[in-house]
Amino acid sequence: MTWLVWRQHRIQFLVGAALLAAFAVLIVITGVQVANQYHAACAAGRGCHAGSGLFLGSHAVGFLIISTLGAPALVGLFVGAPLVAAEAEAGTTQFAWMQSVTRRHWVAVKVGWMLLAAAVWGGAISALVTWWEGPNNALQLNAFDPGRFDIMGTVPVAYSLFAVALGIAAGTLLRRTLPAIAVTLAGFIAVRALITLLLRPHYLSAVTVFYKVTSNLRPPGSFWQVASGIVGPNGQAIDLNTNGNAVFGIPANYLPASCNQVSRGAFTPPPSCVQAASHFRYFVTYQPADRYWTFQGIETGIFLVLAAALIAVTAVTLLRRDA
Amino acid sequence: MIPIHEVPGSALPGPAAIETSGLSKRYGKVSALTDCTVSVPEGRICALIGPNGAGKTTLLRLLAGLSRPTAGQVTVNGTTPRQDPAFLADIGFLAQDIPLYRRLSAEDHICIGAHLNPRWDAESVRERLTGLKIPLDRAVGKLSGGQRAQVALSLTLAKQPRLLLLDEPVAALDPLARRNFLGLLADAVAVGGLTVVLSSHLVADLERVCDHLIMLASSRVQLCGDIEDLLAEHQILTGPRKDTTAIERSHRVVQITRTPRQTTLLVWLNGPVVDPVFEASDVSLEELVLGYMGQDAEPALAQLTTVGEEQ
Questions:
Q1: How many other CB atoms sit within 10 Å of the CB of residue A87?
Q2: N vs C: which end of chain B shows fewer Cβ within 10 Å?
Q3: Would you list which residues of chain A are within 8 Å, Cβ to Cβ, of chain B?
Q4: pLDDT (tens place) for every residue of chain A, 323 residues total
Q5: For chain A, what are the domain ranges?
Q6: Is the Cβ pair B67, A93 closer than 8 Å?
Q7: What one-character DSSP code corresponds to residue B105?
Q8: Which chain A residues have a beta carbon less than 8 Å from that of B93?
Q9: Is B118 at the interface with chain A, CB within 8 A?
Q10: Contact A102 B84 (CB under 8 A)
Q11: How far apart (Å, rounded) are the C-alpha atoms in residues A185 and A80?
Q12: Nearest CA to B151 among B109, B199, B200?
């Protein structure tokens, strides 16, 4: 069976491998440059901040890296969706299933190799991107941001497995390649968006901290900010949507008149103004930086469970349905 | 009631390669096969004949285990069709639309077969296709329809099954290729250990090599049995236009054709015809099949299905 899978899908395998290789070469060459600049900047004692020069000249690479958000979908569309659908369309299941191989065996080997291929695809891309973005994460402290969280760590592996399983299941149920590709694309985007927007912020309950507005403190590391705002001396919420002037982020209409001088161009607020402002608290509701791998693990788990469910649907459908 | 015939060679029919009883298959509200009870002894070449949509493909797919019956039993090579390598190894099935991987070559298919089957005669396929001047290394999608059919047939034979189920196998072949292929089948059966069922809606394709017949119409079995027996049991009676109730009382009339001058009856004999007014003549397979196709399926005919197997 493995030989059949290889013979049938070797072009897909080779195209996938070639794309991965080209991506790897590009990422390694530019990534070494980025890492060298970063370490040079660190050695120069500028707090590792190389300024805007650090990633200069790599906009194309930056775009390519962001676009790896879509890489898991590719494997679902071009490997998963046609896997069963193309055979059903061409009638070749009737050839394969009349050899001395049970359908269970056929499904297990075909799906098994495709899952492995998807995991390698997602894993290799993620490993390269995670490495390339290392200095960037350290500088910007933004590894948790939606759009960055999704292209690094373990989640791209789970997305790829989910995408290929979704494609296989859609192809099995619809038995036609093009509709299966359409359903896979729509389904993948919908599930990813829903989980990113609705579920991910709630994997663990967010932490809220309060700081004096005059303190300039922030949570440590690469935290994920869920919400922020200012509360007044009595704990009342402050409406920050104002067209007027603001001092320490507090709209001037909440503060005594002495603060108005600040907004007229004086850089140092008078003590009475600081005194008034110090009763206000700045709060940040956030997921702490040390939860990064917990979140990666939870999201990976969710997509692995979804992928397993889709594979189960595929197997049950193929084994029960008439050929 | 059922006539007993002493046909040499069929007095001791071997074990059945195929036995079905009350086999039915429904797709939603459409009945593709209804109450099908047939039996084909081992070593036969059985013609599966019927008009388009009669249920031939449905029956073959049920026998191959590709689909599951809605009701009834089916036994093939002594067991119920199931997902088991040993069962599958003994069945060769070629679907009507000749499913092959269009981008792969014949040689690729030979290798697939070698990997997936316990018995596999790769050399016979190469020999046969080379003899037919069919390139082994060209994608089968680029071959002509007839060449593709030859590739698929050769691959099905290379599996060396005990039961070969072929759905319209010769439809894509030219007349000479048909004759050669059917000859090949007859040779393979003569060697022993092989039973063949091949479907067609054309009697002429099959009557040269087949010694057994299953006839379907409107999803029901019309006839099943040894062809020689069936031909001996039926006669065509031709006579002046007159009352035929006497004949209908003692024989089963399959079909009556009346013209102003004469009446022609296809009858299933139940003893000799005594009416001197009617002239009896032997029936050809084609006349027999057309006679049964011309009438609607009637459950009463189901008893005929056992004729071939009566001692």
A1: 24
A2: N
A3: 1, 3-4, 7-8, 90-104, 319, 322-323
A4: 888 999 999 999 999 999 999 999 999 988 888 888 778 777 776 666 655 455 544 677 888 888 999 999 999 999 999 999 999 999 999 999 999 999 999 999 999 999 999 999 999 999 999 998 888 877 777 888 888 999 999 999 999 999 999 999 999 999 999 999 999 999 999 999 999 999 999 999 999 999 888 787 888 888 998 888 888 888 788 877 776 677 777 887 787 777 776 555 556 777 878 888 888 888 999 999 999 999 999 999 999 999 999 999 999 999 988 87
A5: 2-43+60-203+293-320, 207-287
A6: no
A7: B
A8: 94, 98
A9: yes
A10: yes
A11: 11
A12: B109
Q: Say yes or no for a CB contact (<8 Å) between A99 and B91.
A: no
A303 contacts A155 by C-beta, under 8 angstroms: yes
**Contact, B159 vs B114, CB < 8 A?**
no
Q: What is d(CA A56, CA A38) in angstroms, rounded to the nearest whole number?
A: 12
Instruction: Please tell me which of the candidates B95, B112, B118 has its beta carbon nearest to residue A91.
Output: B95
Does residue A119 contact residue A154 with C-beta atoms inside 8 Å?
Answer: no
The residue type of A232 is G
Interface residue B136 vs chain A (CB under 8 A): no
By residue count, chain A amounts to 323
For B145, counting Cβ atoms within 10 Å of its Cβ (0-12 exposed, 13-18 middle, 19+ buried), the class is exposed
Q: Which has the closest alpha carbon to B122: B134, B112, B114, B130?
A: B114
In SS3 terms, A98-162 reads as CCCCCHHHHHHHHHHHHHHHHHHHHHHHHHHHHHHCHHHHHHHCCCCCCCCHHHCCCHHHHHHHH
- Residue written as token pair 């300024």: A51
Which among B93, B98, B113, B87 has a CA at the least distance from the CA of B148? B98
